[in-house]
């Protein structure tokens, strides 16, 4: 297979108020259209700004639909939920975990009034706009089934609509300015934004070479970034490491089971996580790491429903080598890199190297969870629905995650190794 056409960003400066200082970059090859499935409106409490709450709670919803008559629809956010966010309230999910305003798989707020009546976050969903020194980068969230399936028209053909959403985003979040003042190639190795863009261009070039498996492309991306770090220190990658091979020879080390277990707990939780459980616990990880060094290291187990599976059983499940399935994984990685949503202000203030390696780790766990989902259904081949469901969960959890300084520091120590990345990718084969 030939290389993909280079997915260079579209830059649109036609919207009034946009200029060279803040262009809107639109990714190539990414489509979106709502599929009307209603699944985006489940599994979470929709947050509302003060203006959202005032507007929506003023309506007598019980008089408009019997389902909403007497329903307890809203709650005020707790102080820790409000901290650092523009939100003050949330819509309470019903007993089935669905938004109470979901009627016949459609938004009753929207159908009763107009889009502008909905909560701000729903008006923008699934579009993301991430501000970086070189402009704003538009992506679509994989929480949306339509985004996972790449349904609809290319974003590059929706420029007017995206400009409208972009303007709404800036109006809703005028003080949203991520701090990109200090980015690093790896810990304590500063990186200019101009040099970062050059590195990103090479990462995307490697990613788009679909003559190799996605696992091999990700391995080469890791090798390239590690090579950039070594060049800065006046050395090169040892010749023996230039040839990449993935497979059974790359067996997980005990400490890697500990790291994967903690990340798996966060990204594919078996239950709703409370505040104390919902972020990476550096102290718990360090304690488990010490136990691993003494030979006490529980093995990574994967779950589906009430069933648990060991790694060997999960790896035996087949992931069909179909272009439409492989493309889902590719677009997830591509959008995270294009949108700068994997390092620095885009994700936990991680360094570029560790941010990339964390993204690869998340991908590896996603592949394993797809296979576990198949086993949970009693079959040994992954179905498209397994990829969609697990991908949506991963995207949501990545969006919910925050790393404090201790957690980021732990990841900076544990995810610098290229060899570790090869072992994680080998789990996918």
TrEMBL record:
Region entry Disordered, spans: 1-22
Name this polypeptide is given: YkgJ family cysteine cluster protein
């Amino acid at each position: 297979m030939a290389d993909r056409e280079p997915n260079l960003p579209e830059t649109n400066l036609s919207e009034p108020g946009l200029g060279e200082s803040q262009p809107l970059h639109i990714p190539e090859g990414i489509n979106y259209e709502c599929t009307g499935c209603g699944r985006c409106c489940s599994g979470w409490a929709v947050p509302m700004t003060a203006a959202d709450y005032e507007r929506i709670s003023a309506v007598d919803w019980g008089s408009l639909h019997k389902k909403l008559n007497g329903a307890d629809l809203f709650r005020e956010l707790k102080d820790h939920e409000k901290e650092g966010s523009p939100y003050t309230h949330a819509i309470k999910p019903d007993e089935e975990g669905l938004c109470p305003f979901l009627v016949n798989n459609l938004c009753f707020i929207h159908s009763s009034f107009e889009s502008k009546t909905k909560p701000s976050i729903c008006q923008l969903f699934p579009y993301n706009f991430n501000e970086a020194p070189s402009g704003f980068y538009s992506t679509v969230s994989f929480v949306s089934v339509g985004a996972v399936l790449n349904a609809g028209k290319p974003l590059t053909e929706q420029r007017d609509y995206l400009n409208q959403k972009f303007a709404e985003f800036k109006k809703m979040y005028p003080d949203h300015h991520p701090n990109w003042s200090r980015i690093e190639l790896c810990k304590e190795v500063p990186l200019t934004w101009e040099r970062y863009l050059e590195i990103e261009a090479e990462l995307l070039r490697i990613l788009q070479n679909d003559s190799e498996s996605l696992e091999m492309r990700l391995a080469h991306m890791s090798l390239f970034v590690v090579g950039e770090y070594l060049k800065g220190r006046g050395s090169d990658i040892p010749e023996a490491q230039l040839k990449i091979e993935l497979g059974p020879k790359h067996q997980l080390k005990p400490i890697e089971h500990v790291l994967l277990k903690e990340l798996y707990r966060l990204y594919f939780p078996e239950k709703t996580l409370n505040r104390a459980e919902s972020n990476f616990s550096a102290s718990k990880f360090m304690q488990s790491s010490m136990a691993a060094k003494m030979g006490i290291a529980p093995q990574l187990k994967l779950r589906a429903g009430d069933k648990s599976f060991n790694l060997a059983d999960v790896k035996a499940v087949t992931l069909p080598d179909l272009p439409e399935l492989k493309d889902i994984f590719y677009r997830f990685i591509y959008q995270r890199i294009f949108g700068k949503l994997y390092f620095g202000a885009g994700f936990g203030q991680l360094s570029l190297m560790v941010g990339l390696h964390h993204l690869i780790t998340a991908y590896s766990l996603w592949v394993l969870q797809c296979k576990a989902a198949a086993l949970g259904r009693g079959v040994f081949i992954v179905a498209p629905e397994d990829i969609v469901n697990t991908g949506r969960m991963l995207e949501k959890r990545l969006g919910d995650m925050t790393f404090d300084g201790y957690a980021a520091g732990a990841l900076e120590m544990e995810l610098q190794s290229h060899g570790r990345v090869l072992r994680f990718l080998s789990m996918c084969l």
